[in-house]
Design brief:
- The complex is a heterodimer.
- Chain A is mainly α.
- Chain A has 20 helices and two strands.
- Chain A is globular, with a radius of gyration of 23 Å.
- Helix content of chain B is 40%, strand content 18%.
- A six-stranded mixed β-sheet of chain B has the order 13-11-17-18-19-20, sandwiched between helices.
- Chain B starts with a helix and ends with a helix.
- The C terminus of chain B is likely disordered.
- Classes of the chains: A mainly alpha, B alpha/beta.
- Chains A and B meet through helix 3, helix 6, helix 13, helix 14 and helix 15 of A and helix 4, helix 5, helix 6 and strand 14 of B.
């Protein structure tokens, strides 16, 4: 049991350090006494080192012990026992947690310098601490409650960082869009959790998700399909799979390092990671598998087309990242779990590097001799001209996704709200409520 | 009381701020005038060991001052950093030729840098290696968003990216050292400029290279312009400047303005090569300008960001000059550290107690750091310009705020040299000054806002985040320490002559008349100064005493962060025994 004690301590460290950091940075700000920049920098670096070492030590210890996955309950010693605080220890969760911590640590060091003297310095690192907390919870979650908590932290900090420069209109509007999509995914996730509880009587992930105990899974087929489909919706929201892809390039509003860590490296893969965790459920439903493969493949095709024609660098990188996310989802749907995991790891590192050095592109171009602009490659020239032009237009307009959603979802929703508002006014005789009008306007953008 | 109240009411916020601003500008100008009028002048060596011609850039002010403090036998000059050589230039590793001259000039001449071993097997191997590196990177970049290439590459090798990531973000200094280490294994090739006129159609421009006559004209223009002709030392350094930084779409805004935002090294190199050419010297002698055979021009490029100082074509230095060359090199190595130290006092994130060698390492890591939005502060804080002999400003601590242009009024009776200098220099410095002025007072309108969300688009500019208008102008990180004041230009000249030249040049006249710049004339032979305004001449009477510091620049700026007053640095007292 002492080994369990060790893991318990390490996980406690990994999860609670960002939480402590959040409070240490946040409370003085709330009291209008924000900490000094150098102090914040040191605290963040220290915290990130601790989180990474906690994760990494646990990973090494786990690898050495060679034990299968185990469930660590942090609430076990309490009375009444709290099932909710359960964490799953296996090589994938620890590796994902450790790599996320490493990349977050790099981004923390990067941001510390990059945001030097920025008025939003404190706010940025508070949101960053929230993010680290979220990703550690998602990586190590052993019960669906923990997972949802982490998922929410991710979504919240993500949307607030997109709207980081809230003195301009565009970031706020785009943040709202991101937030709306995330809420949809969250709703699906929550429904899946409720269903899971109803069916299995517990939200513990080990018996359901861990690939080592697939035999024990006692889900009836219909339920399994439903849960899997809901999870796919949640994943699609978070990882920007079709038809939710439109928000990803719009999310590039924050400071460059936050774009890197969210949409290049870590957050965008959270969905893939969840799907990987949920693979035993996925395996029980051919329908869900086919659907996931279809979503992944169409996303990858759509994204690779769009990436080729975007004029600005961050959109190109966003669609580049999305291409791989789509491929990873396909790999998971096909049951190639190890490949998918390696793909996640490699892509996280590489894309992070690419995002962080994105502004360097003009510098690199001084020495790069590209003989003649290639235009359409010879593969593409085989496509008939008219179709090629159509495809080009389709890619350039990012698949018309945003306008479709605006027209068929937001537009209908607005009409519904207006109708309700009319009814409301007819019944109560009140004036227009400012909140609703403001919300509609920003969605119109 | 009623009257006071109504007057106060009429004196609104905008008017009040306008007056305060004008008062502050006046205060700064007056301090500057005081320093010039009260500077006893010439502490310059009568027979300098070596001379150095820099760009007029105000970032060279500190370098020149430290060079003179370190090596009192050195003499420095300033001129527009393209050294009179307007050209399209393509370096051995450049993808495209680009113009290196002020943006107003459209060059006719094309010059390329060639590998010494071109055609040999070694050279071919090098050319192959040079082209494969970037091409490999380009393929990886493409592969990162294509379907099949990416799917194979990413799971296999993507994780390797963690190495440069950690190195460049967490240990930038080490990263820059490793870069240098790799160059010692595969050293840069020996290259030469092909300057001579060839009967070949150039890729851009009209001619390939320069004729001897053109070269002589260029050399004469510069040497006469800075008033060095009668006093050439055995070794004359011609120093262009450039700036390198990573992750900085505004990198070229830190390069040489007189080279159209390009690197000034090639121009310096071309100039030195022309001035050393015996045919050119012979032609010059026929024109009445004789360069002593003992004089050697040596080009160099100074990196204003990481303070690297590279000598170009140093293998051509005659053996008789090696001892002077070594002396110059030693002095410059010291100056690199001292200058970094002075510059670092403006960076908030560098502790003031850092010793000089640590600040040099710091600026090196700054230039190699991916996360650094302020690799250097560029022209920020520029406020003054002096067109005149260095002896009038030598010994003054101008706090990297003054453009220094060398011009000798005693050798220019009719003012034709001054006319040429003003026409070339004033639009450049006034442009820089106003760009920073407006970038600072309206960072969203005239500037491009904060760098943090910038997104390079179409490989030509930046926009904010996911989509916005193209953002032109300087980013906030470059102008944040700038004091928005109009430029004060002091010309060492007879006021009447100066006024006549200004009248004759419409552009210049408009700048002065509409008060985009302030102009004053410093009498060549006396310590008097006359302000030149649209209304006429206004003699200036000294107002404030100028602080005098014994020792060197360090004794004045040590431990201070903000803008500093102009001071006189009196190191002659320390070094020479009082008789």
């Amino acid at each position: 049991m002492s080994r369990d004690g060790l893991f318990q301590a390490l996980i406690l460290v990994s999860v609670f350090t960002p939480l402590v950091l959040l409070f240490v940075l946040g409370v003085p700000s709330l009291l209008s006494r924000p900490l000094q920049e150098s102090v914040v920098g040191r605290l963040v670096r220290l915290a990130m080192a601790v989180v990474f070492l906690g994760n990494f030590t646990a990973l090494v210890a786990h690898a050495v012990s060679g034990a299968p996955a185990r469930l660590i309950s942090l609430g076990a010693g309490l009375s009444p026992p709290m099932e909710a605080f359960e964490f799953l220890v296996d090589s994938r969760s620890l590796a994902f947690g450790a790599l996320s911590a490493l990349l977050c640590g790099i981004v923390a060091a990067f941001s510390n310098r990059y945001l030097h003297r920025d008025p939003g310095f404190n706010r940025y690192f508070i949101l960053f601490a929230t993010f680290v907390l979220g990703i550690e919870l998602v990586a190590l979650a052993g019960s669906i409650e923990v997972l949802i908590a982490g998922w929410e932290f991710l979504g919240l900090s993500s949307a607030l960082l997109v709207g980081f420069f809230h003195d301009r209109r565009a970031p706020v509007g785009n943040a709202l869009r991101v937030f709306a999509v995330y809420r949809l995914g969250d709703a699906a996730m929550l429904s899946a959790a409720v269903l899971l509880h109803q069916t299995a009587g517990s939200g513990s992930l080990l018996m359901l998700f861990s690939s080592t105990v697939t035999e024990a899974t006692p889900l009836p087929a219909g339920r399994a399909t439903l849960i899997a489909l809901l999870l796919i919706v949640a994943v699609a929201g978070k990882s920007a799979l079709l038809p939710f892809s439109g928000w990803l390039p719009r999310a590039m509003e924050g400071p460059t390092p936050s774009s890197a860590v969210y949409y290049g490296a870590v957050s965008i893969h959270a969905g893939c990671f969840l799907l990987l965790r949920a693979s035993p459920v996925l395996e029980q439903s051919t329908l869900a598998q086919v659907l996931a493969a279809f979503a992944g493949l169409s996303t990858a095709l759509y994204a690779t087309m769009s990436a080729r024609v975007q004029a600005d660098l961050k959109s190109t990188l966003a669609y580049g990242a999305l291409t791989h996310v789509g491929l990873i989802v396909v790999e998971i749907a096909l049951g190639l779990y190890t490949l998918a995991f390696l793909h996640i790891v490699g892509h996280m590192c590489f894309r992070m590097m690419q995002f962080l050095s994105a502004p360097n592109v003009l510098h690199d171009l001084h020495e790069l001799v590209v003989e003649g602009q290639p235009g359409a490659s010879h593969h593409l020239r085989r496509i008939p001209t008219r179709l090629r032009h159509r495809l080009y237009f389709f890619a350039l307009e990012r698949g018309f996704l945003d306008s479709l959603i605006d027209r068929f979802v937001v537009g209908r929703f607005q009409r519904l709200l207006r109708a309700l508002d009319l009814v409301d006014r007819a019944l109560c005789g009140g004036g227009p409520t400012g909140l609703k009008v403001a919300a509609e306007e920003s969605l119109d953008d | 009381v009623k009257q006071i109240e109504s007057e106060l009411a009429a004196f609104g916020a905008i008017e009040r701020r306008r007056i305060l601003h004008a008062a502050y500008e006046r205060f700064l100008s007056h301090h500057f005038y005081d320093a010039l009028v009260q500077n006893p002048g010439s502490t310059a060596p009568s027979e300098p060991a070596f001379q150095a011609v820099f760009c007029l850039d105000e970032r060279e002010e500190s370098f020149r001052r430290h060079l003179e403090e370190t090596e009192p036998e050195a003499e420095t000059f300033g001129t527009a950093g393209f050294f009179g050589v307007p050209m399209y230039y393509r370096g051995a590793t450049d993808a495209q030729p680009r113009p290196l001259c002020p943006v107003a000039i459209r060059p006719d001449h094309y010059v390329s840098e060639r590998d010494d071993g071109e055609g040999t097997r070694d050279g071919q191997r090098f050319a192959f290696r040079r082209s494969t590196g970037p091409l490999f990177g380009h393929n990886i970049y493409l592969g990162s968003h294509t379907f099949f290439r990416g799917a194979i590459f990413m799971p296999l090798a993507g994780v390797a990216a963690i190495v440069p990531l950690v190195l460049r973000v967490l240990f930038p200094w080490l990263g820059s050292r490793l870069g240098r280490l790799s160059r010692t294994f595969a050293p840069d090739r020996m290259t030469r400029l092909s300057l001579a006129r060839e009967q070949v159609v150039p890729p851009v421009g009209r001619y390939t290279g320069f004729t001897v006559d053109e070269m002589a004209e260029i050399v004469r223009g510069v040497l006469e312009g800075i008033g060095i002709t009668g006093r050439l030392a055995p070794l004359v350094l011609v120093v262009g400047h450039a700036s390198t930084s990573l992750n900085n779409p505004h990198e070229s805004a830190h390069d040489c303005g007189a080279c159209g935002g390009g690197r000034g090294g090639p121009n310096a190199r071309a100039f030195a090569q022309m001035a050393d050419d015996p045919r050119v010297r012979q032609r010059l002698a026929e024109l009445g300008l004789s360069i002593p055979p003992s004089t050697w021009f040596l080009a160099a490029e100074r990196n204003t960001c990481n303070n690297a100082f590279d000598f170009l074509d140093a293998d051509w230095v005659p053996s008789g000059l090696q001892s002077v060359f070594d002396k110059a090199r030693r002095a410059i190595d010291t100056v690199r550290e001292r200058e970094s130290h002075e510059r670092c006092r403006r960076f908030d994130d560098v502790p003031l107690w850092y010793p000089a060698f640590a600040t040099l390492a710091h600026v090196e890591s700054r230039a190699a750091n991916l996360a650094q939005p302020r690799p250097e502060y560029g022209h920020a804080s520029n406020a003054f310009c002096v067109i005149g002999r260095r002896s009038r400003t030598r010994g003054l601590f101008l706090d990297r705020r003054a453009f220094l242009v060398s011009y000798d009024p005693t050798e220019d009776g009719d003012g034709h040299i001054l006319g040429r200098t003003l026409a070339g220099v004033v639009p450049v410095v006034a442009g820089i000054s106003l760009e920073y002025y407006f970038g600072r007072v309206d960072p969203t309108g005239y500037g491009s806002g904060t760098k943090l969300p910038h997104n390079v688009t179409s490989l030509l500019g930046v926009m904010d985040g996911a989509g916005s208008d193209l953002r032109t102008g300087l980013p906030w990180q470059m102008v944040e320490i700038h004091e928005p004041v109009r430029l004060t230009i002091v010309v060492e000249s007879e006021p009447r002559l100066l006024a006549r030249i200004i009248q004759a040049q419409a552009d210049l006249e408009r700048l002065v008349r509409n008060r985009w710049i302030f102009m004053a004339a410093l009498m060549p032979h006396e310590n008097r100064l006359v302000e030149i305004t649209a209304e006429g001449f206004e003699p200036y009477a000294a107002r404030y005493p100028v602080p005098t510091v014994r020792g060197d620049s360090l004794d004045w700026y040590r431990g201070k962060r903000g803008h500093l007053r102009i001071a006189r640095i009196d190191n002659a007292i320390c070094q020479e025994p009082v008789v």
